[in-house]
Every structure is written in structure tokens, then in C-alpha cells.
């Protein structure tokens, strides 16, 4: 299995090749489709120098790169539209469109993303996890990072790991191995393990959501902005496909009403947590329809095509990755070229 560093080198090489050959221009008409939904998480200034231990760096872009992304969308003829317009635009021909979506409900979206979005006149969607907004949720990937930053060894008997973590390189390797092993198993074990590591490191895991995420009051204030769509990201951010029917129904169906009470408006759109095939599938797509959501998004990569109008509860997105904040990467992602083979092989990428 390739290391994260090796994968990043391959991606950088791929983006550079697409740019050098001009494939982002001459293949775009076949690859781009009707539009694209972009995925963001954190937007904040760089907090760690290159080479430092920052395993969740991929989830954060800088405000300046968000500005470049919005400028590039306009320059390439994309209309930036609200999520509510997506079903109609899928049925129309014409200029391509882009929808901007931000997952989890981080405070830095308000502090650093919103001013840039406002300056560009860009509508955007914030997918809110109920328990993060109430300060009771568990951001286990942050817990894992913070614990490993403090600990000199990472002992995970739950998955048979005992890893050195004495320097940044060892910590990065330990995080990658621990993340892979924990993600492969039951989520109950994952969450118990990261909580235990936080205890060993002297970290209060229960304070992380309140530190990083917008509160219910802040979200209700944000909802007054007509450019912002507040949407659902379940109650507790589980990998839904790992849980039984009752738990998933509670997260998707019952969660809609509870999020409505929290936000002051019932959400009409849903984002599946994690969103890959191991976290959301046909059962989850059916429940999202049953709950009455107008759309639901995955993290399966790809642009949108006319056929997605029949699959509005299994929509693909394109992640704007903090490890690839370059113009070459941006041109490639907006062209659709990196996803051309994937989309052909998976048809509409909804199964």
C-alpha cells in the first residue's frame, strides 16, 4: 500500500501532466459535464510549515486559495449557484455551474471563508452536524491527531498496533497506520480508541467540538444571510454504512427534525458523513429520499451529468484538497479530466 507521501507525489505528478499536456482544455468538453459540486472543510491561514506533523492538512485550504478557486470558476465560465438551483440546472443546457459546499460546520468557515465568499457574491452551503453545534460531538480524526502530537508511542491493542511517535516523521507514519486500521473496523472501536488515546495524552476530547465548530446561536445568526444554505450532516457524524437500520434512520430521518429545531429552519439537503462507498450506499440513499431531502451528496469523486437528475440523493463531489493548493491542481479538478475514466467505469458513480 502506498504511503500518504507517495500518493501525494503521484497526484502532484498527475496534475502537472494534465497541465503540461493541455488536457484540462482539450478534454474538458467531454469530462466536465453540466456542473460540479465542490467540497471544502476548513478555510484558515496555514498553521504548520511543510514537513511538520499535520495529518489533517488535506482538510484545510487558505483564504487566498479559496479566492483563487472562486476567481478560476468565474474565469472558466462557471456560474456559482445555490444548491437549491441544482436540480433545475441539471435539466438545462448552457454554461457549466458550480455549487460550493462546506462540511461539518467549522467556525473558521464564518471567520475566514465567509468574507471571501461575500466579496465574490458567491452563494454557499454549510452542512451542519447537530452534535458539533451543541458541543457534544466527537471529531475523532482531530482527537487522533492531537493525541499523537503529544504521545511518544501510539499503542492501539484494539487493532494490534504499537507504533513509535518520537518525531514528526514517526508521528505522521503512526497517524496514517492508526487511521487506516481504525477506519477498517467497527466505528465503536475507533471512537473508544481515540478517546482512550486522548486520555493518555491529557486531552479533553469533549471540548474539541465547541472549540472548532459553530454553536447553534452562531448558526441561526448565519442563517439570516440569504447567500447561505444551512443543510444537514446527520446528528453525530457516523460512517452510516457501518451501523444498523435503526441507527441510520435516527441519523438521517429523525435527525432532520432535530436539526430543524436547532437551526430554526428544517434542512432540505443532506451530506453523508465521510461519504465514500464504505460509509454511504443504497440504503442511505433510499432513507434520504424517504426523509424528504431534495438532494444528498457523497464524497465519491466526479462532475455532474444530465443523468444525475435521476439520482439526486447520491450526488458526487470534487474535493478541494489542502495538500494540492496549486493552479495546476485547480485547473485539472475543474476540467473533470481526473475523473473521466472513473465516471466511465462507474457510469454515474451512484451504486
UniProtKB/TrEMBL annotation:
UniProt keyword rRNA-binding present? no
What keywords does the record list, in alphabetical order?
Signal
GO BP, one example?
carbohydrate metabolic process
What is a GO molecular function of this protein? Answer: hydrolase activity, acting on carbon-nitrogen (but not peptide) bonds
Q: Which CDD domains match?
A: CE4_Mlr8448_like_5s
Among its keywords, does the record have Signal? yes
User: Which superkingdom does the taxonomy of this entry point to?
Assistant: Bacteria
Q: NodB homology domain location, by residue? A: 96-351
Function statement: Is involved in generating a small heat-stable compound (Nod), an acylated oligomer of N-acetylglucosamine, that stimulates mitosis in various plant protoplasts.
**Record family assignment:** Belongs to the polysaccharide deacetylase family.
PANTHER family, sorted: POLY-BETA-1,6-N-ACETYL-D-GLUCOSAMINE N-DEACETYLASE, PTHR34216
Protein name according to UniProt: Chitooligosaccharide deacetylase
Species source reads Methylobacterium currus
Amino acid at each position: 500500500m502506498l504511503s500518504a507521501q507517495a500518493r501525494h507525489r503521484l497526484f502532484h505528478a498527475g496534475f502537472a501532466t494534465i497541465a503540461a499536456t493541455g488536457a484540462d482544455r482539450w478534454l474538458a468538453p467531454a469530462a466536465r459535464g453540466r456542473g460540479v459540486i465542490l467540497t471544502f472543510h476548513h478555510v484558515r491561514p496555514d498553521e504548520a510549515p511543510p514537513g511538520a506533523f499535520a495529518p489533517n492538512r488535506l482538510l484545510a485550504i487558505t483564504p487566498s486559495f479559496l479566492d483563487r478557486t472562486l476567481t478560476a470558476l468565474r474565469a472558466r465560465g462557471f456560474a456559482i449557484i445555490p444548491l437549491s438551483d441544482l436540480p433545475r440546472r441539471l435539466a438545462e443546457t448552457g454554461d457549466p455551474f458550480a455549487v460550493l459546499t462546506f462540511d461539518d460546520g467549522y467556525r473558521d468557515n464564518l471567520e475566514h471563508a465567509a468574507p471571501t465568499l461575500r466579496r465574490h457574491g458567491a452563494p454557499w452551503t454549510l452542512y451542519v452536524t447537530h452534535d458539533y453545534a451543541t458541543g457534544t460531538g466527537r471529531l475523532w480524526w482531530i482527537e487522533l491527531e492531537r493525541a499523537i502530537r503529544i504521545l511518544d508511542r501510539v499503542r492501539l491493542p484494539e487493532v494490534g498496533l504499537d507504533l513509535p511517535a518520537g518525531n514528526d516523521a514517526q508521528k505522521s507514519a503512526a497517524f496514517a497506520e492508526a487511521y487506516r486500521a481504525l477506519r477498517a473496523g467497527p466505528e465503536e472501536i475507533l471512537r473508544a480508541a481515540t478517546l482512550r488515546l486522548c486520555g493518555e495524552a491529557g486531552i479533553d476530547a469533549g471540548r474539541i467540538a465547541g472549540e472548532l465548530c459553530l454553536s447553534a446561536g452562531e448558526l441561526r445568526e448565519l442563517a439570516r444571510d440569504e447567500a447561505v444554505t444551512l443543510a444537514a450532516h446527520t446528528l453525530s457524524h457516523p460512517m452510516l454504512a457501518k451501523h444498523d437500520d435503526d441507527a441510520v434512520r435516527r441519523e438521517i430521518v429523525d435527525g432532520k427534525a432535530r436539526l430543524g429545531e436547532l437551526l430554526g429552519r428544517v434542512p432540505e439537503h443532506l451530506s453523508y458523513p465521510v461519504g465514500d462507498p464504505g460509509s454511504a450506499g443504497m440504503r442511505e440513499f433510499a432513507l434520504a429520499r424517504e426523509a424528504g431531502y431534495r438532494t444528498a451528496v457523497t464524497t465519491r469523486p466526479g462532475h455532474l451529468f444530465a443523468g444525475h437528475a435521476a439520482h439526486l440523493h447520491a450526488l458526487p463531489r470534487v474535493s478541494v484538497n489542502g495538500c494540492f493548493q496549486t493552479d495546476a491542481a485547480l485547473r485539472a479538478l475543474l476540467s473533470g479530466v481526473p475523473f473521466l475514466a472513473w465516471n466511465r467505469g462507474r457510469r454515474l458513480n451512484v451504486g
